[in-house]
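Chapter review: from sequence to fold.
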Amino acid sequence: MKILIADDDPQMLRALRITLTARGYDVTTASDGTAALDAAIRIHPDIVVIDLGMPGLTGIEVIEALRGWTQIPVLVVSGRSESWDKVEALDAGADDYVTKPFSADELLARIRALSRRTPAASNEPVVTFGDVTVDLAAHVVTRAGASVRLTPTEWRLLEVLLRNHDRLVTRETLLTEVWGPQYTTDTGYLRLYLSQLRKKLEPEPSVPRYLLTEAGMGYRFVSQ
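The token string follows.
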């Protein structure tokens, strides 16, 4: 079972990683909210254990973002013990709340309880833009309800851009992610495949609305 732990306290991260790894869990850690959300999209954890007070995105903001596309069980582990903190976290979509300090046995029991819950929806987002829908779990793309066939390379390129919604993805990053580190100077690949993706997905490929070029830097996916 994969568990994502998000906390800005390095000692807490270390202690939880050691405790859970010793029990056979596959543990990934994040020290701020943005990294936690990125990791959730990247590794698709079975459970998220998260603190509320983190830099970048707060724990509440991460939970709200997760609930936009997944029902992964979320366990809040926080030093905040006021009832309104718990209500806010649960209203945002958390499944359980543990107040620090806590015992390892209690944490493990709560994780076991959450692991018995079956998510009601896919742990992968479905992304829509214009008349295009991309199901990242099923690897299915439709446009105006009709199936769109992508090559494996086109799919991987689109996936990287979609997982970095609204963020600049440099040419070097795309080349490394899609083709490998030995291709970081072959920008012709990017121009060719972005052109193909635009022909398949953009309403006006010559004037892209969603798959944008950032001159001299890379590319960016925007949904509006």
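Two observations follow directly from the output. The first strand starts at residue 2 and ends at 6. Residues 30 and 39 are 8 Å apart (CA to CA).
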